[in-house]
Specification:
Length: 71
């Protein structure tokens, strides 16, 4: 497998989709360790990145791929 690619099985068609997800790189805080995506509300789809080195959380807007807040 190619590093960084996402592999998804398609059971109904008997195929495997290979997706290159790198479309943007967003600068966040120091030593980012985890990410969660909001599923509901006004921020649905926003990514919350836990930055262990700076003890902050970066909020990323998925439409613009920019940090819109630091918590």
């Amino acid at each position: 497998p190619q590093a960084g690619y996402v592999y998804v099985t398609n059971s109904n068609s008997g195929t495997l989709s290979v997706i290159n997800p790198v479309t943007a790189t967003v600068a966040v805080g120091v030593n980012p360790r985890g990410v969660a995506v909001s599923a509901t509300g006004l921020e649905a789809g926003y990514a919350y990145v836990a930055n262990a080195g700076s003890d902050t959380v970066s909020v990323v807007n998925p439409l613009t791929n920019t940090v819109v807040a630091i918590i």
